[in-house]
Structures are given as structure tokens and as C-alpha cells.
User: What shape does this take?
Amino acid sequence: MVDRLITYDPAVYEAIGRKTWRKRLATISLKMPSIAVLFVWSVIPLLMTLWFSFQRYNLMDPGRKGFDGLGNYRYLLSDPSLILSIWNTVLLVGAVLAITIGLGTLLAVLFDQEFFGRGIARVLALAPFFVMPTVNALVWKNMMMHPDNGFIAFLMRGIGLRPIDWFAVAPLASIVIIVSWQWLPFALLTLLTAIQSLDSERKEAARMDGAGSIAMFFHIIWPHLRQAVAAVTMIETIFFLGIFAEIYVTTSGGPGFASTNLSFLIYRYALLEYDVGAASAGGVVAIVLANVLALFLIRSFARNLDA
Assistant: This one.
């Protein structure tokens, strides 16, 4: 067998290099509009937040301006409401995730079964997700949880119990119920879609081997749902960190700071106390916490994808 001799031609390699460079330039030129929009939309507001977090800037005292160093951060960290608002945020996110994923999984398994009126039941179950957050909060505040005219008060009086003022006695739990009611359809729809993508032959084989409903769920359905649950957890957490409308409409963060989360605390600094510097410092803290949590969730999500 005769070996082929490969000769090195500098002109050929130079032509290939120029062609590759032209392709890269064409690709960059197509990407630049999107990069510019992303820069204007996200990077500039972030830089402005960082800038104002180091400035002494209170709209109630416009004469006192200038660089304040870490003054806003020292004021923020010395405020007892910061730790309480972070704790409320963690409780709110964790409780709503537990309710929506737990009930969503249960309802997804039930709605995967054949029963009369299943189509209507699915439509009714998904309807709350299309209600605006402000309208959702108003409905629960005035029609469901009102201590005098609410439906829950009517039921409690019907069984001989005394109605309570939910937003005064259990404000954070009330917010959890309101947000869970709206986001349960999202978890239900995602998990139901995942269940319906499961191969029916696997379920039929398990039934033929004598597997009951509980064994079927834990050994076949739940392992198949892990990736969908991870996706629901990541998406919902991103939204739950910024819950504001429900708190603003119902409790205004009270009583005191009992239902104030980090988003509402920043609102108090910015639009109630007019302290732009402290609000910007709170925004930076929120960005750091959100990114730490997002990094943890993304890594967990990646592990579930690899499993």
C-alpha cells in the first residue's frame, strides 16, 4: 500500500482562516442587536442599582447627596426587619412550593385517570392560573377570607365556630394560601403532561406483575416525574422570590413586618421612606440571594437531567 503524502500549502490554510473569520464576523453582527437590547434592558439597571447603593440619596432630603460608601449596607444590615423579611421570603417560597408540588402531583395522578367530566374538571382546575395576581388577592380578601362576609367565615359560622380575621391573625399563611391557589394549576399542568408522556406499556407491564397503585406511583410514576418536579421548582422559585401584589393588596406587609418579604421591604424603603440608597442596597442583597438560590437550583436541575 502506498502512503499518501500530505503537503502543507500555506495559501490554502490562509484562505480557510479568512473564510472562518468572515463567518465569525457575520455571526457577531447578527448577535449584536440582541446583545445591545440585553445590555440596555438588564445590565444598565443593574449598574444603576449598584451605583445608587453607594450613594446618600433620600428624596425627602434632596440636599444631602454624595458618596456614602457602605453606609446604606450598614444601615440595611442593622435593620431588624431585614432578617425577618428574608425569613418570611424563605417561608413563603418553601410553603408554596410544598403545597403546589404536593397537591399538583396528587391532582396530576387523579386527572390522568378516566372519569366522567374529566375535561370540565381539567378546565376548572387550570382556570386560577389565568387570574391576575391583583384580582386574585382581591377575590380572596373580600370574598373568601373576609371576617364578616367571606365564604370561609360563612362555613365557620355554619359549624358553630367563630370567624377569624385571617390577615390579622395569620397574615403570612393567608398569603401562602392565595399564592398557592393561583400557582397550583401550573404545577398540575406540567406534572400531568409529564405523566401522560410516560410509556403506557411500562404501566401495563407493572399491573400485570401485580403492582398496586402505591407501588406503581413510587417505582414508575415518581421516578419519571423527577425532572418535571425539578423544572417546576426552579421556575416557581424564581417567581415566588418577587411576590409583591398579593402582599400589597391584602396585608401591606403587616401587621408590623409579619408578612413583609424582601421585595416588599425594598418597596417600603423606596416608595414609603423615599430612601433610594437603602432600597438600592436592598436590591443588591436580593440579587445576590436570588443568584445563590438560582445556582443551587440549576445544579440540582442538571443532576436530575443526568440521572
Q: What stands out?
A: The CA atoms of residues 215 and 279 lie 52 Å apart.
